[in-house]
Design goal:
Blueprint (H helix, E strand, L loop, with lengths): L22 H6 L6 E4 L5 E3 L7 H9 L3 E4 L7 E3 L4 E2 L1
Length: about 90
């Protein structure tokens, strides 16, 4: 794991999740795989193993670079801008 400059840009408190699953998947009748939580705004999206890749799409649309796993028992974080675990 490495430190990235995007970590310093995160809010001091982790944002509350905007839902319990990927709302964008639910809207299109999809099945989300491996959820991610945006650490800037709390958006919950599916990972790149899901057909729609909503977490990556969220990063591309908003520039919110750092997300963490939203799966039970997992707490790792990923920086889309750096392409690495942080």
């Amino acid at each position: 794991m490495s430190e990235c400059p995007h970590i310093a840009e995160l809010p001091r408190s982790e944002p509350a999740p905007r839902g319990e699953t990927c709302g964008a998947c639910l809207a299109v009748g999809g099945h989300p795989v491996q959820l991610r939580l945006c650490l800037v705004c709390g958006q919950v999206g599916c990972c790149d193993s899901s057909p729609y890749q909503h977490a990556t799409r969220h990063f591309k649309e908003t520039g919110h670079a750092v997300m963490r796993s939203f799966e039970p028992g997992e707490s790792w974080r990923w920086c889309y801008a750096d392409g690495s675990i942080v």
